[in-house]
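Hi support team,

I've been running sequence recovery on a batch of backbones for a student project. Most finish fine, but this one hangs at about 90% for roughly twenty minutes before it completes. I'm not sure whether the input is malformed or the queue is just slow. I've pasted the structure tokens below so you can try to reproduce it. Let me know if you need the job ID as well.

Thanks,
M.K.
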């Protein structure tokens, strides 16, 4: 209940849960709570779908994905409205960061699947095995389970789904209970694309299971072949423990505490706008949001003034209104977490220049865009993920100090460095994060070709890009021996074979006359009568 979830009494054979608009609190819809039996049935259907889907020629799978991209584009405005109503984000963000990123991902996966699946020759120089030819092929795992969060309710599950489908896997997706509808819309669009390609009579390789944590847990414990989990560190850890018990391979995309480093040669106007947008977009609820901003002392007070000026112009309200810049937080639990961190920092001596309070007059989950200074790393605001519209700014004296502050975190998802490009690039190379951007932020997540993922508590593995697709295929080494009528020298019996095999080893690893003599001494092995 405290997460804004209400269970609805049984109206048929299955229990349901409800979703709510975070801007208004109004109920939006009811969705089935999938039991473990229904999750297993969905995995079984997906496996049936995978059997035919993986045997389709690659160009046909890519054609389906290209059609999905087109359908996403056609439905962009209605999808953006659905996303805004469930997640609270402004319509422009839903359109660009969910719908456009998803359509781009579909095309990228369609374009690159053949390269990911391309077979490779594995040459070798072993003289005892010279009549063999080795080849590496990349095979789909089978059924990929995807568990996704609410903050990018379309683009996160869609990008992972397209990567998995493109290389011949099936997918069972468990979307967040706070924002299930975009996943169901995706299921509908994939169904329409399959139909348009003449593939609709077959069981679908894409299934959605709705529900709360226990439904996710059922998916982890089902017979899936690999899991992509995106969500909080706490849940990620629980998922990793369950997966370890089954030796289920997992990719974990977890939280962040991203640093923004503003060097003395940065453009003050651009960097302050970036800091405001990077910390406030999606109401700060982005895994790659700016959560800590470090600014060179020589420009620190001017930077803070510029940020203050820009934050005071932000329009906070319902994301469905086209003039809104900053929407509500997702729910009351998130509002309380943000308030707790800001209040604690204030009690420890931090100065709040703007915001620092909820805005109950606007609706249940609004928090004012907040600018806060005089912070340090002893405060939870600077060490734990905040996920709210808060920009904490701290000064530094030189590059070494900036780098050590940026790296002083349990997280390592993304970071940005601002300044003269060569200077900023040199600093960026020393920042420990999965993505480090120079003179930009967050947009790396929208580049389909760019791998996404983090270090430390930010997770394990990569999604997006070729590296993300490679995570969804397993290598298979195929060895073909052309001496099909010859028994191997090292087979039974061993009796009377040892001396010649010893000479054989010497022949391989010696040279000159010694090698010739060893070759001669190994000859009996070739005439040995084998069982
Ligand atoms: P969450 O961990 O609460 O939930 C994520 C998903 O896990 C939901 O679908 C939920 O139902 C499911 N779940 C809950 N308990 C489960 C269990 N025991 N077993 C299996 N599944 C379970 O996270 P959230 O609040 O939805 O998302 C916000 C978090 O996600 C933030 O920490 C954010 O940084 C992180 N995130 C990370 C990335 C990234 O790419 N690294 C991207 C977006 C969000």
């Amino acid at each position: 209940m405290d997460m804004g979830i209400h269970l609805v009494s049984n109206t048929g054979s299955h229990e349901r849960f409800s979703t709510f608009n975070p801007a208004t609190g109004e109920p939006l819809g009811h969705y089935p709570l999938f039991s473990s039996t229904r999750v297993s049935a969905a995995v079984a259907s997906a496996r049936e779908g995978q059997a035919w889907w993986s045997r389709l020629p690659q160009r046909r799978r890519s054609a389906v994905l290209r059609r999905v991209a087109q359908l996403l584009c056609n439905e962009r405005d209605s999808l953006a409205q659905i996303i805004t109503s469930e997640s609270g984000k402004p319509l422009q963000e839903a359109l660009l960061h969910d719908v456009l990123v998803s359509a781009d991902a579909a095309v990228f996966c369609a374009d690159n699947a053949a390269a990911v699946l391309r077979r490779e020759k594995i040459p070798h120089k072993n003289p005892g095995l010279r009549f063999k030819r080795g080849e590496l092929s990349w095979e789909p795992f089978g059924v990929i389970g995807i568990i996704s969060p609410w903050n990018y309710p379309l683009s996160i599950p869609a990008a992972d789904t397209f990567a998995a489908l493109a290389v011949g896997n099936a997918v069972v997706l468990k979307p967040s209970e706070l924002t299930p509808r975009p996943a169901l819309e995706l299921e509908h669009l994939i169904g329409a694309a399959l139909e348009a390609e003449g593939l609709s009579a077959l069981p679908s390789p894409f299934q959605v299971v709705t529900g709360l944590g226990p439904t996710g847990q059922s998916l982890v414990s089902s017979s899936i072949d690999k899991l992509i989990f995106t969500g909080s560190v706490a849940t990620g850890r629980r998922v990793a423990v369950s997966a370890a018990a089954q030796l289920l391979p997992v990719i974990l995309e977890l939280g962040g505490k991203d640093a923004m480093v503003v060097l003395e040669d940065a453009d003050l106007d651009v960097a302050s706008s970036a800091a405001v947008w990077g910390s406030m977009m999606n109401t700060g609820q982005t895994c790659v949001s700016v959560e800590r901003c470090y600014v060179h002392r020589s420009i620190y007070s001017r930077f803070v003034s510029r940020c203050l000026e820009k934050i005071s112009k932000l329009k906070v309200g319902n994301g469905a209104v086209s003039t809104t810049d900053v929407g509500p937080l997702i729910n009351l639990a998130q509002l309380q977490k943000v308030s707790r961190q800001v209040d604690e920092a204030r009690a420890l001596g931090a100065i709040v220049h703007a915001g620092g309070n909820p805005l109950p007059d606007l609706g249940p989950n609004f928090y004012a865009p907040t600018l806060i200074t005089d912070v340090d790393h002893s405060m939870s605001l600077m060490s734990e993920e905040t996920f709210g519209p808060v920009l904490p700014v701290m000064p530094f004296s030189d590059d070494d100090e900036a780098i050590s502050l940026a790296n002083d975190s349990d997280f390592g998802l993304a970071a940005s460095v601002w300044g003269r490009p060569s200077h900023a690039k040199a600093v960026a190379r020393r920042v420990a994060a999965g993505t480090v951007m120079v003179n930009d932020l967050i947009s790396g997540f929208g580049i389909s070709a760019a791998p996404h993922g983090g270090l430390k508590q930010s997770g394990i593995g990569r999604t997006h890009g070729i590296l993300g697709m490679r995570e969804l295929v397993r290598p298979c080494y195929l060895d073909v021996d052309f001496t099909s009528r010859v028994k191997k020298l090292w087979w039974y019996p061993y009796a009377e074979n040892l001396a010649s095999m010893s000479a054989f080893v010497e022949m391989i690893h010696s040279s000159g006359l010694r090698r010739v003599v060893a070759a001669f001494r190994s000859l009996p092995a070739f005439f040995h009568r084998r069982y």
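--
Follow-up from support: It reproduced on our side and the slowdown came from queue contention, not your input. The chain has three domains: 38-254+466-475, 259-448, 489-526. No action needed from you.
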